[in-house]
Specification:
heterotrimer; A mainly alpha (about 300); B mainly alpha (about 280); C alpha/beta (about 325); A: about 300 residues; mainly alpha; MetI-like fold; about 75% helix; globular; B: about 280 residues
Amino acid sequence: MIAQRLIAFIPIIIAVSILIFLALRVVPGDPVTVLTAGSPVPAEVKEQLRREFDLDKPLTVQFWNWAKNAVQGDFGISLKTREPVTELLGETLPITLTILIGGLILSMLISVPLGVIAALRQGRLSDQLIIGATLVTLSVPVFTAGILAIIVFSFWLGWLPPFGRGEGFGWDRVSHLLMPWCVLGLAMTAAQTNTLRAGMIDVLNREYILAAEARGLSPIAVIRHGFRTAMVPVVNILGVQFGYMIVGTVLVDFVFGMGGIGQLLVDAVNQRDYPVVQAILVCIAVAFTATTLLVDIVASRLDPRYAD
Amino acid sequence: MRTAAVLSALRRDPALAISAGLVVIFVIIAVFGPWIAPQDPNQINPGSNYLPPSGDFWFGTDRSGRDLFSRLIVGTRMALLGAFAVVVIDVGLGTVYGLIAGYIGGRVDNIMMRIGDILLSFPALIMGVLFVAIFGPGLIPVVVGLALVYMPTAARVVRSQARIQTKEQYVEAGRLLGYSPLRIALRHVLPNCLSQIIVQASIVLAYAVVDLAALSFLGLGVQPPTPDWGNMLAEAQKSMLLAPWLAIFPALAIIILVLAWNVFGARLRYHLDPTERR
Amino acid sequence: MSDPLLNVEGLTTVYRVGGREFAALNDVSLTCQAGERLGVVGESGSGKSVLALSLLNIIRAPGRITAGRVVFADQDILHLRRRELRRVRGGGMSLIFQDAAASLTPVYPVGVQLGEIIRTHLSVTRAEAARQSVQLLGQVGIPEPERRLRAFPSELSGGMKQRVAIAMALASEPSLLIADDPTSAVDVTIQAQILELLRHLVDERQLALIYISHDFRVVSTICERLLILYAGGIVEQGDAPSVFNAPRHPYTDALLACSPSVEEYRFPFATLPGNPPNPRDDPIVGCQFHPRCPRALDVCARETPHEESPTAGHSYRCWSPLDAPGRGSSAAASAP
């Protein structure tokens, strides 16, 4: 099943790559013209730049050259800084992944107990408080939460550094990552909590939960019997949420000046640095497709009945 | 009947009443902003830059001494207008797309829905970024990019109604009478999916407010000096230590609007749709 | 007579349906001696499953037990602390659910679920629990038990699932086994096997058994004593041959007429005219059965009948009982 999915994965990536490639090229505004705008550059130099970036060749050749190199991990060079795009990605991707994965873990740490408690206390005060809290976190956009967090925790309380990615693997790094993790994590908890709550409520009404209770299992063991099934929709939601996670990471990166892929993307878009924009968008598409694959694998691990 | 239900719900449910009140206030501010604002939002007051909130400048002043309160008031229009534009384009495109897919059916329908799924899986903000990368920064590319991502949901609703109606009305009676597809769409398909589309649109509106503000915050949407909550936040970020109020008030404006809208929607669905209650 | 293993007095379980209270179990009293095999017969909706769950004090909202006592092995089940109650549930008293497929957790392999129950109730090591699991699966007639430990319920056939469910009920070494119609969800050929297996296991372990079923025939082959349940109340009880051959309550008689007998297999099954009381309707005054009863008298619609026990080991609640054997004309009774 996994092998099949992996094969299905390739045409999607190719299609998305072509789409992004075309979208960035068909539209008016030759990158070289954009780049050299404002400064008097002789036509020969422009011509040379065009040759250098393959812009004088037909689109099919351009794409083929780009794809051939991309497969080997070479995404060309940045129009702006003249650095290899792969190098730029290497500098920014690790910190972005750190924010993303940390935020994900944190959100699960928060939403799993909340979702279970809300389901067990369905309709009671604690359930209503949890639902209310998720509605609030759902309504606070990541970037406003980030800015307010900086004002409160960095400027007023002075607990945490406001910007930067920190150094090493100790407290300095963690202190820089703490707010990004929390802001991103909290933003993701709402959907997870609500999905887990609904799944848990559904499962707790099943007969096998009653049967587990009738067999004298402890409350924790009984909840565990329902938990795996209830987690399947949560894992599916994570797949859907992955898009929001990327968006959230881009924004968090920007707010906290982490120098991750978000900042790189926004700068590249503003400067019309096409090789960089293209490489990042294709990377996101690959990650996105890979996530849906991963979601299916995890879900089928959780519940043997999970198919398709 | 419905109106009466809404009124009685308003009386009994304080959360609904408060959120509805806030939404109305925001709409009034958006419409009448320029007349409400005490100052021209772009009026530069030399010598009174970075003033904290006071009687003269309720929310303080920014780097150029512009009145933050006035800028926020006028910026409301951008926030709501942009989001509203997203919803209108989203519903319009989705309706046409769904009608076409639903009427033609078969293979074309399949392919169209598949394309819709791909669009839907695209993170809205990333689509906005892509559109800016193609067309350059500004409100219009951002709005179109967002609407395109939200469109498939509306299309799906319209399409399924269109499928049902082509089977029932069109084939049997409509075609015999020579009704045009357009007439059937207006008479039968759209009225049947109106309530679903309204619910969809209300959810999209909240997302659109946030995504538009986020894109402006990234410097890709509404460009300064046009006042917009997102670009005000971006500018405030540069002087957060010196003038935190510049960040706090726009941030609160976004949060309150989105929260009010979400609570309003959630409570209204709760009262109008009995299946929401457990 | 020594203290019975299970003594139930006046057990009443009420459900809230549509804003109105409905007694799914109404003033039920019964006893079960150690090693005794008791059969409970009733139509669907007669409160059979509610009885099973009430005995374990595991009734869920919108239901609750409002009156009565359940004493099992000198423990007051309705007033036990949670921890002790858990020790009884699945420990001293275990329940086999009607639908085995629905009563097994789908996401854990069979071995994990069995081992968990063993380790909850008996303090043994993981390895010992695994060994016992294999043994249990073998005892309930599952081939290649070691391999089946790793199987998920969805990978087993319906009959296998029911066998696993029986193994789970036995895992905690109970003294009373409650079987809630365990053969109703499997097909006929499997039914006989499951029944035979249960009979064998109960004999071998000298367990007390409460066998709940809608099927008179099944119950009478396995049980010594029968209880007939209608609309949450016991309408007749007594020794199996006596009730089976000479029913006194018209409902019992009707039930018997519905069950396909050995000599005369009626097809399709005859069913009782009418339906058991609907929780949404107004409560019935008097005998609950009188609207459907062919022998109903005026008094039946006014007063609830008392328990009559003209012969030892057989009692009924009816104003208009069928004749006792010797004088009667009941379907299965032999002529003098």
